Amino acid sequence: QSALTQPASVSGSPGQSITISCTGTSSDIGKYKYVSWYQQPPGKAPKLMIYEVSYRPSGVSYRFSGSKSGNTASLTISGLQAEDEADYYCCAYTSSDSFVFGAGTTVTVL
Amino acid sequence: EMQLVESGGGLVQPGGSLRLSCAASGFTFSSHWMTWVRQAPGRGLEWVANIKPDGSGTFFVDSVKGRFTMSRDNAKDSLYLQMNSLSAEDTAVYYCARHDYGAWWFDPWGQGTLVTVSS
């Protein structure tokens, strides 16, 4: 199972919006609603930010939103803040009853 | 507060074995699937394995099948990963995380334990 495709890095100025794409196949993202996103600050453990494509867990800022179209999922961060600097990973459930992550995207706040 | 604490990582020689543990608290451990995810130094996340709530079924990524086993002790709220025939490619921080059947996302995560395979 190949990793999902994410851009290596995305940057934006404070207050701007950025979008991170995550491309899979018809056996994972295209087949199921089980796309999740994780935020990982340097040296820390991952934290769930989005589940089932577009749902936010309790405590996650409304500035984080998710969507999906075909084999591609997206995470949008609006009103970018310095605290949003981190690595972001998408994850999808697959038809092989396994999970595949993206390679990760580093978000930089300029 | 839900918490997961991994332990058991360390330095091991190629071909060696190591057993990781994950202690759970703050939720009903026996009701949830559990998973292991690893992250090689400077690399991305990789799903390794998961286990059903009663321990009756385990599932593994192809690269560890036949070498790793996963188990749990619901009486002790603990999860285990037995790793055998280790190679340098297994060097990583190993995280345990909770999920549910039909709720295929991971939350919460532990802080991770580092496994280094080197001679």
Brief characterization of the structure:
The complex is a heterodimer of chains A (110) and B (119). Helices cover 0% and strands 44% of the residues of chain A.
N- to C-terminal distance of chain B:
40 Å
What assembly state would you assign to the polypeptide chains in this entry? heterodimer
Order of helices and strands of chain A: EEEEEEEEE
Mean pLDDT of chain B: 97
The arrangement of helices and strands of chain B along the chain is EEEEEEEEEE
Descriptive tags:
heterodimer, A: 110 residues, mainly beta, 6-stranded mixed sheet, 3-stranded antiparallel sheet, 9 strands, 0% helix, 44% strand, globular, B: 119 residues, 4-stranded antiparallel sheet
What does this structure look like?
The complex is a heterodimer of chains A (110) and B (119). Chain A is mainly β. Chain A is 0% helix and 44% strand. Chain A contains no helices and 9 strands. Chain A has strands at 9-12, 18-23, 35-40, 47-50, 64-69, 72-77, 86-93, 99-101, 105-109. In chain A, strands 1, 3, 4, 7, 8 and 9 form a 6-stranded mixed sheet that branches. Chain A has a 3-stranded antiparallel sheet with strand order 2-6-5, with no helix packed on it. In chain A, strand 5 and strand 6 (72-77) form a beta hairpin. With 119 residues, chain B is an all-beta fold. Chain B has strands at 3-7, 10-12, 18-25, 33-39, 45-51, 58-60, 68-73, 78-83, 92-99, 113-117. The interface between A and B is medium-sized, with 25 and 20 residues.
Secondary-structure map:
The complex is a heterodimer of chains A (110) and B (119).
Chain A: E1 9-12, E2 18-23, E3 35-40, E4 47-50, E5 64-69, E6 72-77, E7 86-93, E8 99-101, E9 105-109
Parallel strand pairs in A: 1-9
Antiparallel strand pairs in A: 2-6, 3-4, 3-7, 5-6, 7-8, 7-9
Chain B: E1 3-7, E2 10-12, E3 18-25, E4 33-39, E5 45-51, E6 58-60, E7 68-73, E8 78-83, E9 92-99, E10 113-117
Parallel strand pairs in B: 2-10
Antiparallel strand pairs in B: 1-3, 3-8, 4-5, 4-9, 5-6, 7-8, 9-10
